[in-house]
Structure formats: structure tokens, C-alpha cells
Amino acid sequence: MVLVAGSANLDFVVRASHIPAPGETVLGRAFQTFPGGKGANQAVACARSGGVATHMLGALSGGAGSPEEEMAKLAIPAVVVTRGAQGSLAWVNGWTLAQASPRITAVDTTGAGDTFCGTLVAALSDGRAMDDALHRASAAAAIACTRPGAQSSIPSRAELETFLQRS
Fold first, then answer.
1. Number of domains in the chain
2. What is the CATH number of the domain that holds 28?
3. Please, which of 29, 72, 96, 118 could form a disulfide with 46 given CB 3.0 to 4.6 Å?
4. Could you count the other beta carbons within 10 Å of the beta carbon of residue 5?
5. What is the pTM of this model?
6. What are 37-85's pLDDT values in tens digits?
């Protein structure tokens, strides 16, 4: 079971011919809403890509101490850094692992990092080794970049498996 603690919100997206300059008004040509929020996006990615029981905690409050104090109590066995098109790095028990990003034509990178994190956690909770988990997470994030929106761009496990077989 995976528990994701974080935010959930509704993203408002307006397409326009260009980004407005300070004080400029630009007429939008399309308006869409997408479910979003860092925590919600990561929870959706984890559930879709890993088939692992995933729960979402939307708020934390009261006497738990600061996030820094709580993190200091944890033994951190690994650190993962995402680097967009340059891939990702993981430091695990003194070892460094590097994972390249698949080459894609990006449409919208909004949910890529959240998709990576959710897929990584799902793969690790499924018992996969870190190198395999990084590979899966990078592939899922690449797929997400080829679609608009955050949660709407997150691939299913079947889509991820198909992408991995083709690459």
C-alpha cells in the first residue's frame, strides 16, 4: 500500500497565441480544466502505472512538528533527482544509477515529474529494483509529456507496458 500526502486542485488552462507581456491583454482561444495538484497527480500515477493500492491524504495539521523535523527522523536509503530531457539520477546505498529519458516530442510537460514519482514508487513497492523502477518511471513521464494536462496525461499500466516493449 502507498500513501501519498499532498495537494489536490483543478487546473485552468487557456490556450493563447502567445504569453502576454506585462499589462497586455491577450484573447484566449480555448479553455479547459484538468484535475491536478502535486499529491493527486502522484497518487494517480502510482495507481495507474503500478496496480498498487494507493491512498491520498489531502491535508496534514496539528502537533506533528515541522516537515524538516519529521524528515530528520527518517532513515533515507535513496535519493532520486529528475533532470527532464537529461534523464534522472539515483543514489542508493552509495551507488549512483543514471537513467536516460526516452526521446519524444513534448506537447505539455506539466505532469511529467509527478508521473515519474508516482510510477517510481509503484515500481519500488512492487518489488522492482531501482534501475528497473527508474526505467519505468522515465518511460511513463515521457508518455505524459506527449499529452496535454497533468492527470489526464498519466499513462495506464497497459500503455506503459506497450511503450516499454516498443522502445
1. 1
2. 3.40.1190.20
3. 118
4. 13
5. 0.71
6. 888 888 898 888 877 788 887 754 455 555 455 545 656 677 788 888 9
What range defines the domain where residue 114 resides? 2-59+68-166
> Residue 85 gets which letter from DSSP?
G
Q: Which residues are catalytic?
A: 114
pLDDT digits (tens, 9 = 90+) for 72-130: 565 667 778 888 899 999 888 878 999 999 999 999 998 899 999 999 999 999 999 99
Report whether 95 contacts 134 (CB < 8 A). Answer: no
What amino acid is encoded at 89 in this protein? L
